[in-house]
Amino acid sequence: MRPIWLEKSSGNVKIIDQRKLPHVFEIVDLLDADDIVRAIREMYVRGAPLIGATGAFGVYLAVREAMKTSCFDEVFQRACENIRAARPTAVNLAWAVDRMTAAISSATDPSEKLALAREEAGRITEEEADNCRRIGEHGVSLIEEAARGKNGRTVNILTHCNAGWLACIEYGTATAPMYIAAEKGIDIHIWIDETRPLNQGARLTAWELGKAGIRHTLIPDNAGGHLMQHGMVDMVIVGTDRTTHTGDVANKIGTYLKALAARDNGIPFYVALPGSTFDWRAADGLKQIPIEQRDPDEVRYVQGLEGGKTKSVLLCPEDTPAANYAFDVTPARLVTGFITERGMCEATKEAIAGLFPEMAGDK
Ligand code: MRU
Questions:
Q1: Residue from 135, 158, 118 nearest 8 by CA
Q2: Is the CB of 274 under 6 A from ligand 1?
Q3: Which mutation among 42, 92, 200 tests ligand 1's pocket best, with the greatest number of atoms within 8 A of CB?
Q4: Which of 115, 206, 280, 282 would suit a FRET pair with 290, their CA atoms being 20 to 30 Å apart?
Q5: Is the pLDDT of residue 96 over 90?
Q6: Catalytic pick from 35, 193, 221, 241?
Q7: How far is the CA of 111 from the centre of ligand 1 (A)?
Q8: Nearest 5 degrees, angle CA 317-CA 318-CA 320?
Q9: Chain Cα centroid distance, residue 184
């Protein structure tokens, strides 16, 4: 199963509505660019590579929509701008929209544009699935090495948020090495941060790893430091929404604190990402990566299951103000290494450029 696909017969885009997981599994049809924008903004779909793939399908739907009007260029461009702006932090979205518009720019006939857009969105999706598999194949060596160092005893890995197949297309980024390690029969156990406010760890990563039969334990967001101090974490692997070409990592809020705790305890902190998540222009993550601020109600309320029904309940006094910064930036100096589809590297500009030489000059 994938979190997004194109239905051949209707040409509509189908997604899993991740807002409702794990208690309700619902598939939703996206019919036009407005549906795509809503799905990204309201987090029916989320996770950097999946936001990119959804944006790509959005451009395809924008062509389909514009074809039905007498002002193709105007309708198409406005739709692309809206898609691009749906969420600001994951760079994959702008990357996918730009790649899609470039891919169809040579065609003059709208139906030719539509065919090219459909092909390119499919290509982006397949490439991201393949990238994740390769990330897993490279990253598993870190787990194998840790298992050797522990004479085969359980390797404990801590992860934050959901950087699994739900956030990507297949395998995930941070989870890909875990899936491959499990396939190889390596004894692993995953500490899953609950990841407030929207609990992507508790709702999504726990669901994914449970389905895959990978041993895991859910922990409150602030437990990681304690576990690290007591030798209960061998490595941290997280995903990212945008990483500068100098190695600063934006990821789900709270990631920075895990990186600090990992450094203080001498625990390796790895970031898994495809090339599409590097920002080849930004050099300073703290100054240049836009950090999304979302509805404070996501902090003030929490969603759960009661009597078989999903319910949202208020956590704090009714008039409590809340701040909802969705991401933070972990400086490159706290990152042990990157795991990419092209291999692993240190978190330096030079090492990243060594893996992606054709992009490094593109600033
Ligand atoms: O707000 P979200 O759920 O879209 O945030 C997702 C994350 O922070 C993920 O860790 C990141 O996108 C990497 S996904 C492979």
A1: 118
A2: no
A3: 200
A4: 206
A5: yes
A6: 241
A7: 34
A8: 65
A9: 25
337 neighbors 344 (Cβ within 8 angstroms) = yes
- Kindly state if the Cβ of 239 falls inside 6 Å of ligand 1: yes
Residue from 169, 112, 209 nearest 341 by CA: 169
* pLDDT per position as a tens digit, 51-72: 999 999 999 999 999 999 999 9
pLDDT grade, residue 360 (50/70/90)?
confident
Question: Max CA-CA distance within the chain?
Answer: 68
Calpha distance 96→215 (Å, rounded): 34
pLDDT above 60 for 362 = no
Supply 95's token pair.
């990357």
- Atom 8 in ligand 1: residue holding the nearest Cα: 252
CB of 83 sitting under 6 A from ligand 1: no
Identity of residue 149: G
Output the CA 227–ligand 1 centroid distance in Å: 23
pTM: 0.97
* Cβ of 240 less than 6 Å from ligand 1: yes
Rounded to the nearest whole angstrom, what is the distance from the C-alpha of residue 198 to the centroid of ligand 1? 11
Angstrom distance (rounded) from CA 168 to CA 179: 14
Q: So what's the pLDDT on residue 249?
A: 98
Q: For residue 161, count CB atoms less than 10 angstroms from its CB and return exposed for 0-12, middle for 13-18, buried for 19 or more.
A: buried
| Residue identifier of the C-alpha nearest atom 6 of ligand 1 | 47
Q: Could you tell me if the CB of 326 is within 6 A of ligand 1?
A: yes
| 235-238/155-159 β-pairing | parallel
Among this protein's residues, is 295 annotated catalytic?
Answer: no
The rounded Å distance from CA 162 to ligand 1 centre is 6
